[in-house]
Design a protein that fits this description.
six-stranded mixed beta sheet; globular; 16% strand
Length: 226
């Protein structure tokens, strides 16, 4: 499997709404915000408002407590067929385009492509991936921030802190059928056996990266989709 993946791997296309040098904010430029929040969104017009309300309420309160704290939220509309872009742009009007930006991809490219586009257009010293479904409480960013802090010193400025819902696994199993539970364990085993052994919940969409780590990680992605 690894050999086939290596042979067939292709560089992700730099097109669509991909940010280039000189065309606007770019990951290669020095950071001008403390935090960038990347929200990949595909047909999320119903769930996005709940997540955005929670996130922006937290971020605004944090900024009032500490005026030096700066942030931006980048919603990447991944070729949605519903009103996701319209919903997201309402937050631009409410909070200003300096705090909330919407990037729309003409065609659906998958979560990998959407997150990568947002990262490459970000201005943050730290970059957070956050799912539009609000599956993780946004205030839990403080936990991943603490995790990132505990990794110091960062080699070459690179560090990644991963959120985890592994401690909620028993509750989720109780709500699943035996077949889905079997599939879950099978998938977790394959991920553990073939890829990552140190991280229990690789699928949690709540990850915090330093700017340099984001640049290195997303510059080397080969797969755009989930």
């Amino acid at each position: 499997i690894c050999a086939i993946a290596h042979v067939t791997a292709k560089t992700m296309p730099h097109k669509d709404a991909e940010c280039r040098k000189g065309s606007g904010p770019n990951i290669h430029d020095p950071a001008t915000r403390e935090l960038s929040v990347i929200v990949p969104s595909y047909n999320e017009e119903k769930r996005l408002p709940l997540m955005m309300d929670e996130a922006l309420d937290y971020l605004e309160k944090r900024q009032k407590q500490d005026p030096s704290f700066t942030y931006e939220v980048i919603v990447v509309n991944d070729g949605s067929k519903d009103q996701t872009a319209k919903v997201a742009k309402e937050y631009c009007k409410k909070y200003g385009s300096d705090k909330v930006r919407v990037i729309s991809l003409e065609k659906n490219r998958g979560k990998g492509g959407a997150v990568r586009t947002g990262v490459f257009c970000s201005r943050g010293e730290k970059i957070l991936m956050a799912d539009a479904d609000g599956a993780t409480k946004f205030a839990d960013i403080e936990k991943v921030e603490e995790g990132l802090k505990n990794l110091r010193p960062w080699p070459k400025g690179m560090a990644i802190s991963c959120g985890s819902r592994a401690h909620l696994e028993k509750d989720s199993i109780a709500k699943r059928s035996y077949f889905r539970t079997l599939l879950m364990y099978g998938f977790h085993f394959l991920v553990w056996f073939l890829c990552v052994k140190e991280i229990r919940d690789t699928q949690c969409g709540f990850k915090l990266l330093t700017r340099e780590a984001a640049l290195q990680t997303f510059s080397n992605l080969h797969i755009e989709r989930w």
